[in-house]
Design brief:
It is a single chain. This protein is mostly helical. It has one domain. Helices cover 63% and strands 0% of the residues. The protein starts with 5 loop residues before the first helix and ends in a 9-residue tail after the last helix.
Length: 70
């Protein structure tokens, strides 16, 4: 259900970063974030799962996000 919003989330991320909205890394990030809902939704502690999701995604994302001032 959430994945139908992948394109919109990717476009919003690209717009925020001033990045090319066709960048597959942005679409993959949006996909993984939205897909995490399937685990968060059934967890006894959804906040822990959500934190774990971003702890895994953040290191890879730093390679895409421009450094401050760029």
């Amino acid at each position: 259900m959430w994945l139908r919003h992948e394109g919109a989330l990717a476009a919003a991320i690209a717009d925020e970063l001033g990045a090319d909205p066709r960048d597959p890394r942005i679409h993959l990030f949006a996909h993984f974030v939205l897909e995490s809902w399937s685990v968060v939704d059934v967890s006894d502690d959804p906040l822990v799962v959500l934190d774990a999701t971003f702890a895994l995604l953040e290191p890879g994302w730093l390679a895409v996000e421009p450094a401050p001032g760029e």
